[in-house]
């Protein structure tokens, strides 16, 4: 309780008795509420995926720009984006095999033996086109073969490279001698052997690469149109 004269109990004058009293000055300012910064919580923490598998993204969460995958669900895939499955094709391993004919079995295909003896650049051009799967034309390879033969007289330095490609394609052994030796001493016989090898494996060099592709497509279409075994077409 205050004193009747308006002073405080200890005798000091009350601020209300002061003519210079300003209630706004003596009032204590109300502290402003603290401002907290909004912390961005990653999607992985907001929606954890402890058990793996697929986690559907809730509505309201932006999916990102079109064409860019989101990394909301890792699903045990590490840094791989969600929805992208990396599948690597199995490596192609050429199983080792043997030549279907011998080096000196030229007369097994008499027509090719005569053409090779008279025009070796023709046989080589046909072989090169099929071995390179159409990347090298028969005419270009044949002309280059003939040019090397006329200028240097040793076309084996060019033809032996395609024998190596043929061996790698089918896993054939380097027999009866290394490729450059075989073509150096038995050029015509080596060309005939390579021609027969392609023909025995279903690729006829005489019709070119495009002809072989068309023939294979026609064979596949005929197999698809053929009736199943044990059934016959009703007329």
UniProtKB/TrEMBL annotation:
Which residue spans traverse the membrane? Answer: 142-160
Q: Does the keyword rRNA-binding apply?
A: no
Which superkingdom, per the lineage?
A: Eukaryota
Name the Pfam families for this protein.
PLAC8
**Alphabetical UniProt keywords:** Membrane, Transmembrane, Transmembrane helix
Tell me the segments the record calls region Disordered. 1-32
- The identity of this protein, by name, is PLAC8 motif-containing protein
Q: Which species is listed as the source?
A: Arabidopsis thaliana x Arabidopsis arenosa
